[in-house]
Write a structure and sequence with these properties.
Isoleucyl-tRNA Synthetase, Domain 1; about 50% helix; binds 5'-O-[(L-methionyl)-sulphamoyl]adenosine; about 500 residues
């Protein structure tokens, strides 16, 4: 049977240009998408842009553009960045596309037909920058409890969604499915939020017009989150599902930042429950990056621009650093010194050295032609077993989105390879013609280990993985771990050249 996997990024607001925070969410999704492909899954990987709402309308006005002109301009910046970061998404949705608007309207109609949408009036406090409504009691000194900025009192006709009706069902789902919301601390947060009681949710606006019209009452446009969240199924062609994508891929996994957890773990699941659709398999909220110890903000002029980083350090180094430095789910700090240290120690030193030493010895002792290994001795078996054990462990770590741990496990293999060189001392074996077969075994094992290391690293560092595999004469289009993870697949006789340095060392003083 076909194994399918669906992963999504949040769709990014077009009133901001992409920064390292956006790159982080998308990159995490890319890593898991690529990993699942190596495990034989058919993967749908969705990203896109959130183009409606008051914020976009206001930003466009400030630029003297229409909202769509602004969106058309900014969407290119996101698309170009994803290309530069080697993001392997299979679809890109814009909420201004017809396919999306259609699904949003159908979803609204379905929930309305069920009797879960009614027309009412509300008085509420709205934080425009956060696009969030607060009750009077939630405000802190009259301001938004999240960002501290002033809120506006609003009274208008609005359609409401009976979210309160789904409180018990949602609670039961969260309680019965411990993995539904992760990490655990975030799950607990949502549990207590839901236990406090859900109120009905206002899901339409008449105060601005840049949005999807409410079917049958076009004075109203839909609340931007009702619109935006639906992207996860509109991209699959719901409800008509002409090409069967919805049936194949829904439900999927949402990876998001912690700031938008409530929308994904409360609002979205209740919309789905009302529409009678399955809930996402998982909502995983990662932490936030600060920069050199400070919150990233335009006013501090410390926004880290991913394009610049990639130009300076290379795409794989950035991908590696973001996934290695901070446990996924926790907050982390971005600093140039930490980045340079990682590049120098993990990439240039550990990985770079293993590859250059191994290929240099193959050139020197066997003229670059991979020898047939002899019998594997005890120390070789230890190395081979370590690879097998780590493969199982890495699979668990990847499925738990513990990217930093999975990388640490891969680096244990790299260290084991370097240690194996030090212990077996190929240069001494080379001096003794009687040890020729032993030398062949050692060199073979090093390169075979590198093959598996390249396969395991490829989801994190696609270009590096490909480079190593090509050097080893392997098919770099076949990254499958399903059967290629077994020891002994490299063909004796393969010509393998000396590796050029993968990651040049960076002089911290000059960087
Ligand atoms: N448009 C909404 C999402 C709708 S999804 C149906 C939105 N967009 S956003 O552009 O503001 O943010 C998108 C993602 O970027 C979020 O997951 C957010 O957590 C992430 N980040 C923004 N700044 C960040 C950091 N400084 N650090 C890590 N991630 C951050 O919200």
């Amino acid at each position: 049977m076909e194994k399918t996997f669906y992963v999504t990024t949040p769709i990014y607001y077009v009133n901001d240009v992409p920064h390292i925070g956006h790159a982080y969410t998308t990159l995490a999704c890319d890593v898991i998408a690529r990993y699942k492909r190596t495990r034989g899954y058919q993967v749908a990987f969705l990203t896109g842009t959130d183009e409606h709402g008051q914020k976009v309308e206001t930003a466009a006005r400030a630029h003297g553009e229409t909202p769509l002109e602004l969106a058309d301009r900014v969407v290119k910046r996101f698309q170009a960045l994803w290309e530069k970061l080697d993001i392997s998404h299979t679809d890109f949705i814009r909420t201004t596309q017809e396919r999306h608007k259609h699904t949003v309207q159908e979803q609204f109609k379905a929930i309305q037909a069920k009797g879960d949408i009614y027309l009412g009036e509300y008085v509420d406090w709205y934080c425009t920058p956060c696009e969030t409504f607060w009750t009077e009691t939630q405000l802190l000194d009259g301001s938004c409890p999240d960002c501290g900025r002033p809120t506006t009192k609003l009274k208008e006709a609005s359609y409401f969604f009976r979210m309160s009706k789904y409180q018990d069902q949602l609670l039961e789902h969260i309680e019965n499915n411990p993995d539904f919301i992760q990490p655990k601390s975030r799950r607990n947060e949502i549990l207590s939020f839901v236990r406090e009681g859900l109120r009905d949710l206002s899901i339409s606006r008449t105060s601005f017009s840049w949005g999807v019209p409410v079917p049958g009452d076009e004075k109203h446009v839909m609340y931007v989150w009702f619109d935006a969240l639906t992207n996860y199924i509109s991209a699959l062609g719901y409800p008509e599902d002409k090409d069967g994508k919805y049936a194949r891929f829904w439900p999927g996994m949402h990876i998001i930042g912690k700031d938008i957890l409530r929308f994904h773990a409360v609002y979205w699941p209740t919309f789905l429950l009302a529409a009678g659709l399955p809930l996402p398999t998982q909502v995983y909220a990662h932490g936030w990056w600060t920069v050199e110890g400070k919150k990233m903000s335009k006013s501090l002029r410390n926004v880290v621009e991913p394009n610049m980083l990639v130009d300076k350090y290379g795409v794989d180094a950035i991908r590696y650093f973001l996934m290695r430095e901070v446990p996924f789910g926790l907050d982390g700090d971005f600093s140039h010194s930490a980045l340079v240290n990682r590049i120098n120690s993990d990439l240039a030193n550990d990985l770079g050295n293993l590859l250059s030493r191994s290929t240099a010895m193959l050139s020197k002792y066997f003229s670059g032609k991979l020898p047939q290994p002899g019998p594997q001795g005890e120390s070789d078996q230890v190395l081979i077993r370590l690879f097998a054990d780590q493969l199982t462990q890495i699979d668990e770590q990847m499925n738990a989105l513990a990217f930093n741990k999975a990388l640490a496990s891969i680096w244990e293999l790299i260290s084991a390879g370097n240690k194996y060189i030090d212990e077996t001392e190929p240069w001494s074996l080379a001096k003794d013609p009687a040890q020729r077969e032993r030398l062949a075994t050692v060199i073979y094992n090093l390169l075979e280990g590198l093959r598996i290391i390249a396969l395991l690293s490829a989801p994190f560092m696609p270009q590096t993985g490909e480079k190593i595999l090509q050097l080893l004469g392997c098919d770099s289009n076949n990254l499958s771990l399903e059967n290629l993870d077994q020891w002994g697949r490299l063909q004796a006789g393969t010509e393998i050249g000396k590796a050029a340095p993968l990651f040049p060392r960076i002089d911290i003083e000059k960087s």
